[in-house]
Design goal:
This protein has 494 residues and is of the alpha/beta class. The chain has 3 domains: 81 residues, Translation Initiation Factor Eif1 (2-Layer Sandwich), CATH 3.30.780; 189 residues, P-loop containing nucleotide triphosphate hydrolases (Rossmann fold); 203 residues, Rossmann fold, CATH 3.40.50. It is built from 20 helices and 20 strands. Helix 4 packs across helix 5, helix 5 crosses helix 6 and helix 15 crosses helix 16.
Length: 494
């Protein structure tokens, strides 16, 4: 230890072992310790069970996620610490032409992959680990499929590939996409791929397993030993305890690829996910996809409802939850939203947050004015969701789907959406961008989408109400994404 301040070795596919003196270990622990966003609101913190911090370096076991190696190197270099890195060389070099030939000749795909997909596949193959940041509509399932086929030829014949998705509907969708990609290349998806959801058998001889995380997170570590490659779709969710537990059990998986449309902007969560998968690789942006005509163009109207002074005084300095309750139950506001939805041309996706006190109210009011109105929330079963999706995609025009943010942020792809209404306020980057992404896929009936972002001005003097500030935060999101937006102020009567 005298010659080196840090000795870095590989414990397994999950963890590095970082040996160092106690003083350096303490410094390293502090470097990789972060407060979790909104920790103060968690029951564990309130009950004094947890201090609200996440520690990525374990002083006792001397372990750190493999995916954080680059950050560890930066830590050492910044402090002039001497390192001994004893790790197997994992990166390989493969040229872009070889990737293109593999996709067009070997896989014989029914269409030519886009340049950004080829670049993402090349990056993943060269690095073995990657967190691919690519928005909704960029073709992430094709990237996963192509890499899955590549790894099947590289991993041991007695080993398998695990594909983890967040919902049962995405299991079905992923299997369907795989079948579409395999139509011309002789790969029998139903013979090669096993899916796990809703109580399906977990044991299989098939080499590819597609599963919801909920179906497998309680499995023992021994069950995960059969896998040598893992894909995590919608991997911004992998900050949760159950998903980190799954990834930590996959000790034989050197190939780790995560895909997501967006991250939440939190440095802490980004590091957790990078630690589990690998460094972030930004594949392409939504605006770039629009500019290349691969997605529908987007225009945003931020409609700010300006309430009378009497209503502003009524809600002045209200707690967040009380303000939300007042807003979603305000009859004038709901009347405006229903009237807007009833007059829009084309199919409309209307998004809400609370089922009983908002979504159901909007549905009942709109249903009375418009026959072609549908309702989806967390309690809607997979079959019914799929039926509604098919109706809107194939048959309907001037229909409205009223849906909760949660059900539509992941797992529902409807190409035939012309308008989106944000009926409930939100400041979540992930929720906002993924909700927008639901409507950006092109179809034969549309090449542009209009977003109506409903906001609420209940400001009094210098005081700004909670949801008005959230509206400003969404403005920042739109600006950062280079979306075309404008603000329209509408006065609400008594």
């Amino acid at each position: 230890m005298a010659q080196h301040d840090l000795i870095i070795t590989k414990k397994d596919s999950v963890y590095l072992r970082v040996e160092c003196e106690r003083s350096v270990a303490k410094e390293l622990s502090e470097f990789f310790t972060f407060k979790v966003p909104n920790y103060q609101y968690t029951p564990a913190y309130k009950n004094k069970i947890w201090d609200g911090q996440i520690r990525l370096y374990n002083v006792h076991t001397q372990t750190l996620y493999v995916g954080l190696l680059d950050y560890l190197v930066d830590f050492a270099n910044d402090r002039n610490y001497k390192m001994k890195v004893d790790l197997p060389i994992s990166n390989i070099s493969i040229n872009k032409e070889s990737i293109e030939n593999y996709l067009t000749s070997k896989l014989n795909l029914p269409f030519t992959p886009h340049e950004h997909q080829v670049n993402a596949i090349q990056h993943a193959i060269e690095n073995k680990r990657a967190l691919l940041l690519s928005p909704t509509g960029s073709g992430k399932s094709l990237i996963i499929y192509s890499l899955m086929r590549y790894y099947l030829s590289k991993i041991n014949e007695d080993k398998k590939i695990l594909v983890i998705v967040p919902t049962t509907s995405l299991v079905s969708q992923m299997m369907s996409d795989f079948r579409d990609y395999s139509k011309q290349n002789g790969f029998d998806v139903d013979q090669e791929c096993h899916y796990i959801m809703s109580g399906q058998e977990k044991e299989t001889d098939k080499r590819v397993v597609v599963s919801t995380w909920q179906s497998i997170y309680k499995e023992r570590e021994k069950w995960f030993d059969q896998f040598e490659a893992v894909f995590g779709d919608e991997c911004h969710l992998f900050k949760s305890k159950s998903l980190t537990s799954i990834m930590s059990k996959l000790k034989n998986c050197d190939y780790r690829i995560g895909t997501t449309g967006t991250l939440d902007g939190s440095h802490t969560h980004k590091l957790v996910i990078e630690g589990l998968f690998g460094c972030v690789k930004k594949v392409i942006t939504t605006k770039d996809l629009m500019d290349k005509s691969l997605l529908s163009s987007l225009k945003i109207d931020q409609i700010v409802l300006n309430y009378p002074e009497s209503m502003k005084q009524e809600t002045k300095r209200a707690k967040y939850q009380d303000e939300i309750k007042w807003i979603v139950q305000n009859p004038k506001r709901n009347e405006f939203i229903v009237d807007l939805a009833s007059k829009l041309k084309g199919n409309t996706l209307l998004l809400f947050q609370f089922v009983e006190k908002h979504g159901m109210v909007l549905y009942n009011d709109l249903k009375a004015k418009k026959d072609k109105t549908f309702f989806i929330h967390g309690g809607t079963d997979v079959e019914q969701r799929e039926n509604i999706r098919k109706i809107l995609d194939n048959e309907m025009d001037n229909a409205t789907l009223i849906a909760s943010y949660g059900t539509c942020s992941t797992g529902i792809n409807i190409r035939n959406i012309h308008n989106i209404i944000f009926a409930s306020p939100s400041r979540s980057v992930i929720r906002v961008l993924q909700s927008i992404g639901r409507g950006l896929r092109k179809s034969t009936s549309k090449d542009k989408v209009k977003l109506y972002d409903i906001a609420d001005d209940l400001c009094v003097g210098k005081y700004q109400n909670h949801t008005y500030r959230h509206m400003q935060e969404r403005q920042t999101i739109y600006s950062n994404e280079r979306f075309e937006s404008r603000m329209i102020v509408i006065d609400v009567s008594e």
